[in-house]
Amino acid sequence: MVGNEIRKRLWSIMSENPTPMEFAASQTRPREGQLPDMKPLLQSWSEAFRDARRALLRRLGIATQHELRQMQQEVRSLDLQRQRHEQILQQYQQVLQQHQQVLQQHTQQSQQHEQRLIRGSESLRWIAEHLQSTKTLAPSQEGPLVSIVMPVWNRASTVSAAIESVLEQSYANWELLIVDDGSQDRTVEVVQEFTQDARIRLHTGPHIGVCRARNRALSEARGEVIAYLDSDNTWFPHYLGEVAREFQQHPKEDSVFAAQLVERANGTEWFIRAITFDHDRFLEEGGIDLNAFAHRRRLVEELGGFDEQLTRLVDWELAIRYTWHRAPKFLPVLSGRYAECRADSVSAKESFERNRELIRQRHPRKIPAAA
Predict the structure, then answer these.
(1) CATH of the domain at 329
(2) Where are the beta strands (DSSP E) in 69-203?
(3) For the chain, how many structural domains are there in total?
(4) Domain check: are 170 and 101 in the same one?
(5) Helix axes 2-16, 39-115, angle to 10 degrees
(6) How far apart, in Å, are the Cα atoms of 302 and each of 50, 335, 358?
(7) Which segment, 40-49, 305-314, 338-347, is predicted with the most confidence on average?
(8) Are residues 272 and 175 in the same domain?
(9) Which domain does 248 fall in, by range?
(10) What is the pLDDT of residue 310?
(11) How far is CA 173 from the centre of its chain?
(12) pTM
């Protein structure tokens, strides 16, 4: 920018003043051998250059001040950006610390949960001990009617095994209420093949969600006892007999839960989930799966069914209400096989934390807030 100004000023000087040749021609011819007097021209050029230099310095000073102000503004802008970035970084660090705390809590809970699992040879000993009492069970009609609730959605590949595990129960006084939640595969056709047994009733309709589907089954239930079986899990033959026997022998008992044989998603690892009921730990961690939980129908009539605003942890929320005033009794028997972490499992679709917060809002005095 300044170089351009200098070139323009020099060109102006050269245009306004005569060249040396023109100046010499305009002078009186000197005597032979004597050069023209160039001092006036040089003096004129020198004065012109001094004027140009002073003008350029003034222009340069003005430009420098303007550029300095621009630089100062840029520095202030950079300072503001740096401050904002530091604030954002601090916020990210706080969030990271919170996530680390939550991760540590989940790790501790997972370690506590792992300590309660029965694995390997201990599992075999547990099975041997707790199945001995069921080896002599015979098919029986004696005892309360058990209504089994089974919602199903696009489970053509697994629902047969679930229904067959009900048909194989040593206890025969049951009804199976299957609610198809708008399946788009062959699920309905598969289930209809079993409806020749009058104890199995199929209800079909549009997709309404697992909670509403279960509530529809509950509204149709006629049994004194309610049990639950998902369409991708199975029961062992003795389970309903043990449940019915417990409720028949203990009329004041409201609910029971049993152990489960849990199969990991990889299909090669399994363990037994068997816990003693601890109310505080249950409110913090859960631990009772719906497939191993049974209760009297009067709890539905008194406390309502499933919360239809939830998409996950629905069994936990129901169990919180049903066990708040009276702890459930643990039955030391294997209820059945539970397939963990299926990709399209009914309980594997939605956010765990969002639903947990909804449950906490419904039971603020019972469930502690997340850290």
Answers:
(1) 3.90.550.10
(2) 117-118, 146-152, 174-180, 200-203
(3) 3
(4) no
(5) 170
(6) 105, 26, 22
(7) 305-314
(8) yes
(9) 119-362
(10) 81
(11) 41
(12) 0.61
